[in-house]
Fold each of these.
Amino acid sequence: MRPEDVQPLFTAAGRDALAAASELHDGDPLAAASALRARGMPPELAAAALTQVALRRRAAAKFGTDAAVMFFTRAGLEQATRATVARRRAERLAAAGVTRVADLGCGIGADTIAFARAGMRVLAVEADPATAEVARANVQALGLADRVLVEARDATETPLVAIDAVFCDPARRTSGGRRVFDPRAYSPPWDFVTALPARVPHTVLKLAPGIDHALLPEGAEGEWVSVDGDVVEAAAWCGPLAEVPRRATLVRDGRVAHITGTGDRKAPVGPIGSYLYDPDGAVVRSHLIAELAETLDGTLLDESIAYITTQSPRATVFAKCYAVTETLPIALKKLRAALRDRNIGALQILKRGSAHDVEDLRRQLRLQGTESAVLALTRIDHQPAAILLRPVDARGAAAGR
Ligand SMILES: C[S@@+](CC[C@H](N)C(=O)[O-])C[C@H]1O[C@@H](n2cnc3c(N)ncnc32)[C@H](O)[C@@H]1O
């Protein structure tokens, strides 16, 4: 779907088409398209409306009930910040006293909407004219048009005047939709993005979770955010917005928890204890394992691997906790025999610091049995290791179960 395909939906006929498509969408898509055409609707409009209704349903996971009135392109939806994350960011900027923000590369407007809802005036800049129209339609649909000016133009040529903060979420995809991992391929270009804090000190950059720490602007706070266990973004809070060197923010079931630190500490290494913790990806990516190990009173199994071990259980939202059952031989035949002896037929395999292909190993283990377990493939003090585990929930851990 091209962005242009969404434009006919902004008209009165488009609104009617969307309403009709929404009623028919649950059935067979071909039958729905025929039914719309039978009502005299042009085939392109019928197809655009049905596609839009499908995107709105998919978008509900990111935007909740707003999705039902918003407009999306497929690429715009994929790249959009989810509403819970955008809202947090907007509230933090508002709390820092920001009232006028430029959103450079606003896409379909997810962050722009959050800024406007937090009370800011927003200059939303988008290079692609059709995507800019979608952003405009979204602020209109959500009743925010009086606070937002959407401009279809190149951010690199936009004067940054009469604003007190900048947000930039550069596109990290090729024009063909493939992800790019090298920041030098971002658009707007990386040089432009990293020069923003010198122009507007209150700058926030949204970056890929895999960003190299060395590439963060000097003095910036690097924040890694996970939602229900998935790391969704990194952000660089520049200039006066930086509060700590590194922060991991976990959003789980709508609740938010942070762990902060310097990101350059080394945790002590020690022998395997009775419990093993698999930290959330945001903690790992933000290099805050030493800080987490300290709060758990734990040590690492290996200096370069993010598994933490303790003697007694600790409740934490920052890691999954497992009780260590035993260490097993790592050699395939012995491991297979050990799992057979223990009647283990269902095995969740975790790995950190192991070159094993998990699905390949699972096939080779030819599991059979009625018991379930978790197996961590890792290293203990530089040596490959297989550790059999049993999940412990946070409350169980607290209660010592
Ligand atoms: C990752 S998306 C932004 C998503 C947005 N933050 C949201 O949550 O909906 C990046 C956007 O930047 C736009 N873009 C890329 N280069 C640009 C430039 N030089 N000037 C303005 N916009 C640009 C792309 O068209 C794309 O829509």
Amino acid sequence: MTDQPSPSSQSFLTALRTLRQSRRFHDRAIPREDLHEILEVARWTGSSKNTQPWHLVVVEDRAVNAELAGYGAFTGFLDGVAASIVITLDHDGRSQAYDEGRISERIMLAAAELGIGSGTAWFSSTEARQRVRDLLGIPGDRHPWSAVGLGYTDTTRSQAAPSSGRKPLAEIVSWGHYQA
Ligand SMILES: Cc1cc2nc3c(=O)[nH]c(=O)nc-3n(C[C@H](O)[C@H](O)[C@H](O)COP(=O)(O)O)c2cc1C
């Protein structure tokens, strides 16, 4: 007899498969206890050699998030989030970039479990990152590459993705050896 996946593991897999970026939110604030829950999950993210290169700045002030919205080509949706978590890293290398991706995804998944939508916002230029530092008092030797915006997704409004859907597995996976 083959083991069947349990209903709870099925719903976890479905949650992983259906997680999408949110960009439009209701005005409702996120309870502090939920933000703490998300941060507690984030804290346990694995990192290269367990260096935990991050320091997270939680921004609940809507005016400050509206200001952050102006600091990137695609960061506009931060004007309207209930909170954002700005991820700052202690170095600017490949392993920190990897670690940043992991902690972002954990934040997004924990938020989703609490019914909270989320989206990555990328502070893409050196100037933008300096403005983020200046606004939030982040030391010059830390790198604020991105933030995760959080809120209750307004499903009546378009989430305006640049593209949607995914490539089929056959296009992105080979078995045994690489086949284009
Ligand atoms: C490194 C990275 C940077 C991103 N930067 C932004 C951004 O600045 N603004 C934005 O709206 N979405 C940003 N996204 C989200 C992507 O646009 C999104 O994951 C992709 O379009 C797939 O969307 P979906 O998951 O909703 O299907 C970023 C994602 C990644 C991984």
Amino acid sequence: MIPELAPWQQRAYDQAVATLAEGRLGHALLLCGPERLGKRAVAEALARYVLCQSRGADGRACGTCRSCRLFDARSQRDPVEVRPDGSPAHPWGHSAHPDYILVGYEWRLKPSPPKPRTEIVIDQVRELSERLALSAEHGVRIAIVEPADAVNYNAWNAILKTLEEPQPGRYLWLVASSPSRLPATIRSRCQRLEMRLPPRDEALAWLHAQGHDVDTAQAALDAARGHPGLADAWLRDGGLALRKEVAADLARVARGESGPIETAQRWAADEDAALRLYHAADLALAEASGLTDPARIRKLAQWFDAANRTRDLLRTTVRADLAIAELLVAWRAVPARQAPGQERGGNR
Ligand SMILES: [Zn+2]
């Protein structure tokens, strides 16, 4: 079964279903909004509904017709499946539904060990276009590209061609958290379905329903600046504790209580180094967002960029502790907050 939708996901879904009911759902849809809000869940639920052969008046798929059963069987597949002949499979598994096409990161099999690609390449898009054009059992075929912001520059022409020659009953849905990265010629041809951060009360109620107690949920939601999906992820994978640790480290480095080199060695010592840099960059961004002093905002923005660059460096052969130490030396040079008694880099 596909998961129950969160209230903010349900709103986006309902909007699309209403558009379909009015006969206004076009060939191309751009589903956008912040990462981890569940855009993919909305796209899947919508695909299941559009493909359903016995759609209810309540805007839900029946769940029992042949199409729904085929669709649901898909979710049981191993997400990191590779085809028996060794050719790459979709990391989320293949759809058992012949009229449902999902295109995302594939696996690069050579050199060994296999790794997922970091972009969606032209061969994938060509295959998508071919499959989308095939005849469909009930006249409907749906292709989803996610993340569409990872489509390779050369592959966009192939997508554009598909968008320019729409066929009846064929849908192409692009899912993106940074839609501005998509070419304007693509964006202008898509209907837009936008997902936004929910109101705080709704986010808290949802986090509570995920099993987090009220205080923890509030702290995580504050740290994630109102993003429930992020807060939930941080609570599940220890990200919130790590974030607090990073905030405390940054404060100590800024006050001169810890050395950049010693701190960098600790940050680089385990597999969480990239995650620490992610939180460090985000904490700088959070600090900057509440400020009015342009000089400090600029310094924090520069440091935010530097932290992200350092995170990219971790994937190269550069020595992680040295790269991080340089970043932390730069952190000391960011002018300190003026208000007395407030910690640098703390959670707000
Ligand atoms: Zn059905």
Amino acid sequence: MTTTEVPSDLAAFAGFLRERLAVLSGEFARPSDAADRAPGDDRIAAVEELREGHEEEIRWVRRFQAALYEAGIAWPSGPVVHGGLGLTPAHDAVLDDLLSELGFPSREALFVGLRIVAPALLHHAAPALRDEVLPALYRAQIVGCQLFSEPGAGSDLAGVTTRAVRDGDDWVVSGQKVWTSMAHLADVGEALVRTHPEASKHGGLTMLLIDMHAPGVTVRPIRQMTGGAAFNEVFLDEVRVPDARRIGGLGEGWRVAGTSLGSERSTMGGAAGPLTPYVMERVVGLVRRLGAEADAVHRPQIARAVAAVAAMRAVANLSPGSWSHRLEPVSGSVLKMLMSQAADEIARLAQDVLGEGAFVDLGEADAYAWSEFVLGVPALHIAGGTDEIQRNVIAQRGLGLPRVSAPRAT
Ligand SMILES: Cc1cc2nc3c(=O)[nH]c(=O)nc-3n(C[C@H](O)[C@H](O)[C@H](O)COP(=O)(O)OP(=O)(O)OC[C@H]3O[C@@H](n4cnc5c(N)ncnc54)[C@H](O)[C@@H]3O)c2cc1C
């Protein structure tokens, strides 16, 4: 396929994708009728919930991603040289929407590599590293994770203390990371490390791409209240990382982290985030099936949930240049806030209409299916930076408001 065959008009592009995806639907799409699915296959999660025995599911998602890559449609906005179509993020959104609408598997297990690590590589890495890693991520030959947070550095991310010391052509990295989603599946990790302790807090950081199978890397899962274990502690004990696997310049780690975080936040507020068209279809179906739309209490709730998601999607689909120049740089934070607020509305609605069926398997359709979503929504207010941090970013960097220090105890 040459890119000249690919229409750039969004509606025509959707038609083009539908044709390509039709070929894959037999092998990968889920049955549209919930009754056709295997028991337990109707669960809805806000955060990917990987459980014991999920290996087959992950292999399947990776096969699906590889099939998308072979079909030439895995990365609409990506450069042609790396297997993309050279189009725009709006074309990525069309693909994400269609995959959800047509019942293809969620690619959330690959989300960190594709939407957080890949943008950093694309915008900051040397050509050789880009050429090696980007196609491998996009055909799911390798999986990526994000080694940013530490026990003492979450909201205050620039406070990371993981040290990297130069030794010949290598860096020797020691420290601890935490909350690392998918680290147990990952082959590479985008690691924010301190290379210049004598420099300023933000200026002493550099970004390295760590081989997660290298000696000295230990991954320990963290169990969540939903029962899954999607994230981990990662211990780095004198891990050798060639300087050729540096992403961006020395001391430019903070800038590279900004690229990853901006993409992470925008993605969470788009069709590849937790509020997919499939989730909306399911919640509307649930309300209708239980006759809740006729209920005076539930009606305003339904309206609020649908309006919140519609607002999020409308903002996500703004074309470049539509944002005010002040808010454009913080658009990811705006989207993430809209997403977490909309997720609250949906979780509350599902919980209220299902009653005890939200958490107990009553043997009826939809009973228990929403428990992971309801229990997972609080995490959406934290992952990718907490709500408080997004508000600070929007206020200070977007609206130019002054930094407010915490009130002092009297
Ligand atoms: C589901 C999930 C997946 C995650 N995946 C990853 C991952 O893959 N890789 C990774 O590196 N990290 C990951 N994280 C970690 C996440 O980025 C951090 O949890 C987050 O940035 C908050 O940091 P913290 O947990 O250290 O909380 P803290 O920074 O200790 O914050 C505690 C509380 O204080 C508030 N607070 C702190 N500073 C301020 C301030 N200046 N103004 C106002 N309020 C403030 C916070 O809002 C919060 O309510 C994940 C988290 C979750 C929930």
